[in-house]
Amino acid sequence: MKHTKEPWSWRPHEDTGRPLIVNSDEYAIALVEGDDFLPINPAEEQANARRIIECVNACAGLNPETIKDLVKAAEVIVNLIINDESRCEAWSGEVDALDDALQRI
Question: 63 burial class (0-12, 13-18, 19+ CB within 10 angstroms)?
Fold first, then answer.
């Protein structure tokens, strides 16, 4: 099954004011809210909505199944270069940047 096409955005729900995630045609995708057991404040609801849409929009056009494989491949490359001193010097800036990016995932 395919997901809703990007880009996604959010706007306040007309009745509750809670973040409503919508597609480019303004059709509702999801309402972001806590529940009776885990209530969250409006600022956190908005932050959650922003995070969801930033992740979805950043991954537009990517096959989500391949992202895990890409991360594994990048980790292998970093380890190969770090363990080979001659490569490590030549690629130190790139390896550091890739390693930093992997740490943030």
Answer: exposed
3-state secondary structure of 75: helix
Residue 32 DSSP one-character state: -
Please give the pLDDT value at position 100.
73
Verdict on whether the full-model pTM lies above 0.90? no
Q: Label residues 85-95 b or e (16+ Cβ within 10 Å = b).
A: eeeeeebeeeb
Mean pLDDT to the nearest integer, 35-52 = 85
Cα–Cα distance for residue pair 103/105, rounded to 1 Å: 6
**Residues β-bridged to residue 11:** 20
Residue in this structure with the two tokens 């001193």, named with its chain if needed: 85
